Amino acid sequence: MKQRNAKFTIGEVVRHKVFPFRGVVFDVDPEFANTDEWWNSIPAEIRPNKDQPFYHLLAENDETEYVAYVSEQNLEHDENDAPLRNPQVYQIFDRGPSGQLKPKIILAH
Asked: What would the pLDDT profile of 18-76 be if each residue is shown by its tens digit?
């Protein structure tokens, strides 16, 4: 199988191309790594290929905040400068000087 590089990086704010939500990437799988049950719950006519990066997002829409798992083909960079509401964002990330989200440094002992 051909190795692919992820288009989006951890800390990047993205939005879904089809559904009205946006979020920040907090993890990346190089290819699909979820359950068959989750996969089969996607209608066949819009089900993405498994052989592409999938992103874990701290996501939000107009009503709520949640964690989403989304294929690369369904995401694009979000140009909206509004801060994300998801309270977990600032547990995982700090905002850099130019506004970018950077993972917090966690020291283990």
From this structure: 999 999 999 999 999 999 999 999 888 889 999 999 999 999 999 999 999 999 999 99
pLDDT digits over 38-48, tens only? 999 988 888 99
Contacts of 49 (CB under 8 A, 6+ apart): 71, 73
- Beta-bridged to residue 71, according to DSSP, are 54
What is the CB neighbour count within 10 angstroms for residue 101?
A: 23
List the CATH code of the domain at 10-101. Answer: 2.30.30
Residue 63 CB neighbour total at 10 angstroms: 8
